[in-house]
Automatic annotation (TrEMBL):
The keyword Secreted does not apply. One of its GO terms (cellular component) is cytosol. SUPFAM superfamilies: Nudix. This is NUDIX domain-containing protein. GO terms for biological process: nucleoside phosphate metabolic process; ribose phosphate metabolic process. Keywords: Hydrolase. It comes from Ornithinibacillus caprae. InterPro entries: Nudix_hydrolase, NUDIX_hydrolase-like_dom_sf, NUDIX_hydrolase_CS, NUDIX_hydrolase_dom.
Length: 182
């Protein structure tokens, strides 16, 4: 018996298996008995970190995003490696992208980034215990970033100007605004 709204997979065709994502097309049986096709991106999941300095600035990275053909200012983030715990990925990405290290992470939330076509689950953490590392982990060889530290008010201004323009970073800023009001 099918659950309400469930789409039962009849057939899966693998289209592409890549380093970051896999693409497949599923033929599905709809709740009304008809069939349809679904283009799906399979992703191992990701993490993002809201790093706060001792002087209460948020550490961001600016990096070029090829799908958008422009640079974005974002909180540090990265893809989960197979079998890796989100906390470990978060600490690694924080150090690789920013040169900061932390021994204290607090889980904020998780969410699906684009559930209409992808299964990517993003975990968000916050840390207020960061310190600059003398010899940080190296970033990925194809990753070029610049560090930007902003106050919460400056970050909100960047959101209004669409200089900060991605979901995870907007979510992080809303979360920090909410904490400030409490």
């Amino acid at each position: 018996m099918m659950k309400k709204f469930e789409e039962k997979t009849i057939h899966t065709e693998q289209i592409f298996n890549g380093k970051v994502v896999n693409l497949q097309v599923d033929e599905v049986r709809l709740p009304n008995g008809k069939t349809s096709k679904r283009e799906l991106i399979k992703h191992p999941g990701a993490v993002a970190v809201i790093p706060i300095t001792k002087d209460n600035k948020i550490v961001f990275v600016e990096q070029y995003r090829k799908p958008l053909e422009k640079s974005l200012i974002e909180i540090p983030a990265g893809k989960l490696e197979p079998g890796e715990k989100p906390e470990k990925t978060a600490l690694r990405e924080l150090e690789e992208e920013t040169g900061y290290r932390s021994n204290q992470l607090d889980f904020v939330s998780s969410f699906y980034t684009s559930p209409g076509f992808a299964d990517e689950l993003m975990y968000i953490f916050i840390t207020k215990e960061i310190e600059k590392v003398k010899d940080p982990l190296s970033p990925d060889e194809d990753e070029f970033v610049e560090i930007i530290e902003l106050t919460l008010d400056e970050a909100i201004e960047y959101v209004q100007q669409q200089r900060i323009h991605d979901a995870k970073t907007n979510y992080a800023i809303l979360y920090l605004e909410m904490l400030e009001r409490m």
